[in-house]
Amino acid sequence: MALPDPVQTLINEWSRFPGVGEKTARRMVFYLLRQEPDKIRGFGEAVLSLSKNIRRCSECGAVTDADPCPICTDPLRDHRQICVVENEEDCVAMEQAGIFSGVYHVLGGRTSPLDGEEIPEESLERLRRRVEEGGVEEIILATAPRIEGDLTAYAVQEALEGLHVRISRLSYGLPAGGSIGFADRVTLHMAMEARKEMNPAER
Known about the structure:
Elements lengths: L4 H10 L7 H12 L3 H17 L1 E2 L6 E2 L13 E8 L2 H10 L4 E5 L14 H12 L5 E5 L4 H13 L6 E4 L15 H9 L2 E2 L6
Parallel strand pairs: 3-4, 3-5, 5-6
Antiparallel strand pairs: 1-2, 6-7
Helix pairs in contact: 1-2, 4-7
């Protein structure tokens, strides 16, 4: 049975989401079709608002509806510590765990030669600039405990070469091959407390 073009188009778009296959996408679309027009319209408006109202913080790179973001402008946060994460999901996981009171830097990518991925150069330059402006005492690398996370951590360390700032990385508690975004509060707390310094000779 051939589906109407608008239905098939939405299925195709939805199936491009991570972890969503064609069958799941089709189920979601048909679920929407069973809803009242007002609910469908509300869902569409919520999606459109992402492009209209959401931007990236000019300081940390996190998604926000205000620039700078609330964390960067919070005077109660410890601006001497910057926790570097690969993406926004990792930042949310750290916040929900409630184990970090500093500020963040969202790289917006990772180093993965096999996937052809690189950290945006502008993000690394912005991080270096934040350290050069002074007041930052420690960079905490919260990258995933797998080979891509290792490469990403070393890329950040290289970008900060020559600067007098302590660089540490989350350690014990995170399983090899795991993800920051899926770690629970206890695991993240253990990893934060047992972080290891990466550049002791440069202090």
